[in-house]
Automatic annotation (TrEMBL):
A GO molecular function held by the record: peptidyl-aspartic acid 3-dioxygenase activity
Secretion signal span: none
Sequence ranges assigned to domain Aspartyl/asparaginy/proline hydroxylase in this UniProt record: 263-415
One GO CC term, this protein: endoplasmic reticulum
Organism: Brassicogethes aeneus (Rape pollen beetle)
Family as reported in the entry's similarity comment: Belongs to the aspartyl/asparaginyl beta-hydroxylase family.
Keywords: Membrane, Transmembrane, Transmembrane helix
Protein name per UniProt: Aspartyl/asparaginy/proline hydroxylase domain-containing protein
From-to range in the entire protein, with total length: 521 to 948 of 948
Amino acid sequence: NKDITNPDDWEVKEKIDEAQKSINNNAANAIKLFDDILQQFPSSPRSLYGKAQALDALADQKRSNELLQKALDLYLEVLNDKKTTNTLFKVVAERAIKRLRFIGQYRKAISVQNALIEKFPDISEYSNELAVTYLTVNRIPEARVILQKVLSKWPNDGFALVHYGFILKTVDDNLVDGIQFLQKGIQTNHKGVIDGRFFFHLGDALTRVGKNDEALKLYEHGVKHGVFLSKYQRSLYNVPRLSGKPWWNKNETPYDQLFKELESNWKEIKREGLNILNQKGYFQDESEKLRDKGDWKQFELYARGQKNVENCKKCPITCGIIDSNPSARGCKRGQTKFSVMHPGTHVWPHCGPTNCRLRAHLGLEVPSNTYIRVAEETRSWENGKVLIFDDSFEHEVWHNGSQFRLVLIVDVWHPELTAQEIKGLSPI
Ligand code: LMR
Ligand code: MN
């Protein structure tokens, strides 16, 4: 406490310490105590800080943004106070940044972060965290410049290395340099570098430059660190207790009814899909940069648990089936979509984002020489039949045939999720 207490605070230090103690068990009372002190000593930074902390705690308990805003105003007041000690400045700024990010006030967070960096230019963490804020709001150029600065001053800073490598790989498609930076960063073992996202993209980059063995080793290393469920199952938004396996049979799920309905109506579904395909401009290019080569497009009917009403008007039979099945219609961690793939397409090995769904493909137009590998087993589609797999497992697709392949993709909840769990899951 010594370092955060300035000369003005010392006369009331005992009272402050007393009030401080009640923040955790009685935040409302702590606010009163701090108000009393502030009546007498309006410019005591520690009392302002204490009151802000109490408001912050109360905001948390009551989930009140209004209280949080009050707390933040006080934090900022402390930061603007010349009498605030350096140590108190750090503590308050760090907390304010965290809370400003939490309620999405990124501009203010950025200005506090800049103040912090100006005051403590030798602490790389403050610059790194500013880069993270910029990345969060997709201001890539600013993030890039900051990370470059950090690395010119501290070339072995693991946190900056992995984040810079992440930008090189995901934004610039610069696989070779991305690999260098991600690898070097992960090897430091610094705080923040053992993170699924960095392992995920490093492995992906290694695969795409043909270093499959290195990718596999990295994935095994990731499993040891707990960032992946298994070397093949590398989704990052998981419910860990769910069982996982690459391929599923219809009768291993409670969705028999849905799958039967899809299969018995496959010709109507196909007609609806072909009808849209024949009108140019409705199918959209696959947008996640998963393609090595070729032409692969999709027409989305449901996503994140939301029905695309306009698109569904174009295929009433298909959407009627989905609508009557809560597990598909309500699968807010998945989609329902038509997927058309043209000859000469290769989709890089990749993993879906979550282990909370299973993915069914209803074969509609299936030429020969089209394949999908999930983990270690390669299969193909059949007209009018569903193929069910867990797309959190690594999968790869080839179209070496001579005419387009059309399937309907339907995501459903993983059968082991409870209704209660599903309620709490964020959409993906
Ligand atoms: C995938 O889900 O990644 C692919 O299997 C989709 C497709 O159209 O084959
Ligand atoms: Mn996929």
